[in-house]
């Protein structure tokens, strides 16, 4: 993952926010989405709904996942209210405030600039704002004032919503203050509004669908299992050929989702183009935008799994939290494959032909890497199945000299 470089340590920042009483929790690196259900990150998110996390909980998680983003639940528990102003192709939340005579809120608030070019306006908690509003699509404004929704904190990073470069990560940043200088007690009070009901009216308007919001794909007469979750489906007349093509597309995606989920390689995407790009990058070419046949889909998914499992070595490139290149060997212990860190401090040129894996008289295990025998550091090992599609975390304890 090509995250934006930063001088801030996310673990230290999380502890700093925790000391302010914020209900913080981790979300996945580089995005705003939470960790999958029943995972460690998901349990911390649910715990933060009822209590402030402990320093030990923060340290343990970010030591294992140092690039995890920091999120928190605004509201009375954290003492913070947040107005989220989105800037999209057809709507701008800043202009909405100005047109309704409350543009002064932008100047009064502590401002956080978001990767997509929008703003988060921070105030001390106020019951004058609704607990939760989703009106970004219609008015460019969201309200986060309870545990019903969360906000990412600086210096978390994400890809801008309309970015053409999928590897460009941009950080959330405070305007005018350093993140370490953030204090809840110094947040501005929420001012009186000319129309006290303005934000409460948005709560009803947020669910309105835009006129002419027709879906690009035919959904008529499709089983509900093939429809996007919560989709506002507008009925139109489609030919039988279009309906059948869409049904096959959705069925093929669901089939590949099951194959990839069972292999724990990647989190499945609902984008057909991204899905086909993934298969193509792994050496399974396809033509055009037509869905892959079911047999080819299963073969492609199996190929993804097999190629990952057959790798003898896994190379972890430098990141903003680890400045050196790490190499892990695929080593089997009691029938389970592990990624085990290579210790380049202990290596030698083999004087005679040795097997790929060799154990010395003192019990040290060596593997053949680039015509050198390098010892394995069994203190840093991770089950291969679990880490096929995830980043290997930063080595614990002292850093050994990397490759």
Question: What would your notes on this structure say?
Answer:
This protein is α+β, with helices and mostly antiparallel strands and 403 residues long. The protein has three domains: 196 residues, no CATH class; 86 residues, no CATH class; 71 residues, no CATH class. Helices cover 25% and strands 22% of the residues. It is built from nine helices and 17 strands. The strands form four sheets. A six-stranded antiparallel sheet has the order 6-7-3-5-4-11. Strand 13 and strand 14 form a beta hairpin. It is globular and about 85 Å long.
Give the count of structural domains: 3
Q: What radius of gyration results from the CA coordinates?
A: 25 Å
Poorly predicted segments: 1-5, 208-219, 228-236, 262-272, 282-289
Tally of DSSP helical segments? 9
| Class per helix and strand makeup | alpha+beta
Short description:
With 403 residues, the protein is α+β, with helices and mostly antiparallel strands. 25% of the residues lie in helices and 22% in strands.
Question: What are the salient characteristics of this protein?
Answer:
single chain; 403 residues; alpha+beta; 3 domains; six-stranded antiparallel β-sheet
């Amino acid at each position: 993952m090509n995250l934006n470089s930063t001088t801030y340590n996310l673990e230290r920042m999380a502890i700093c926010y925790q000391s302010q009483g914020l209900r913080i929790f981790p979300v996945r690196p580089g995005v705003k989405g939470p960790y999958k259900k029943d995972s460690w990150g998901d349990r911390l998110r649910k715990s933060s709904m009822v209590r402030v996390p402990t320093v030990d909980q923060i340290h343990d998680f970010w030591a294992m996942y140092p690039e995890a983003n920091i999120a928190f639940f605004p509201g009375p528990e954290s003492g913070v209210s947040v107005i989220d102003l989105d800037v999209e192709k057809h709507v701008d939340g800043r202009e909405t405030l100005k047109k309704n005579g409350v543009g002064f809120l932008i100047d009064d608030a502590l401002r956080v600039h978001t990767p997509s070019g929008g703003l988060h306006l921070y105030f001390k908690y106020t019951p004058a704002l609704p607990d939760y509003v989703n009106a970004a699509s219609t008015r460019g404004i969201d309200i986060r004032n309870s545990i019903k929704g969360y906000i990412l904190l600086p210096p978390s990073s994400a890809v801008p919503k309309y970015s053409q470069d999928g590897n460009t990560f941009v950080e959330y940043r405070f305007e005018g203050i350093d993140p370490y200088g953030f204090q809840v007690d110094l947040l501005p009070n929420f001012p009186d509004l000319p129309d006290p009901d303005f934000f409460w009216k948005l709560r009803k308007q947020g669910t309105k669908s835009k006129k002419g919001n027709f879906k690009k794909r035919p959904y008529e007469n499709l089983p509900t299992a093939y429809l996007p979750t919560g989709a506002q489906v507008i009925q139109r007349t489609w030919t039988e050929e279009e309906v059948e093509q869409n049904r096959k597309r959705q069925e093929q995606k669901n089939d590949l989702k099951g194959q990839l989920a069972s292999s724990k390689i990647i989190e499945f995407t609902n984008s057909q183009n991204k899905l086909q790009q993934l298969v193509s990058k792994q050496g399974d070419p396809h033509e055009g935008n037509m869905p892959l046949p079911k047999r080819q889909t299963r073969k492609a998914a199996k190929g993804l799994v097999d190629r990952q499992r057959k790798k003898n070595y896994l190379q972890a490139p430098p990141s903003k939290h680890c400045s050196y290149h790490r190499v892990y060997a695929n080593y089997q212990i009691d029938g389970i494959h592990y990624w085990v860190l290579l210790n380049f401090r202990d290596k030698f040129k083999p004087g005679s032909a040795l097997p790929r894996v060799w154990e010395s008289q003192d019990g040290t295990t060596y593997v053949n890497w680039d015509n050198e025998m390098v010892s394995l550091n069994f203190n840093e090992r991770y089950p291969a199945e679990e880490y096929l599609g995830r980043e290997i975390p930063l080595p614990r304890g002292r850093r050994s000299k990397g490759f």
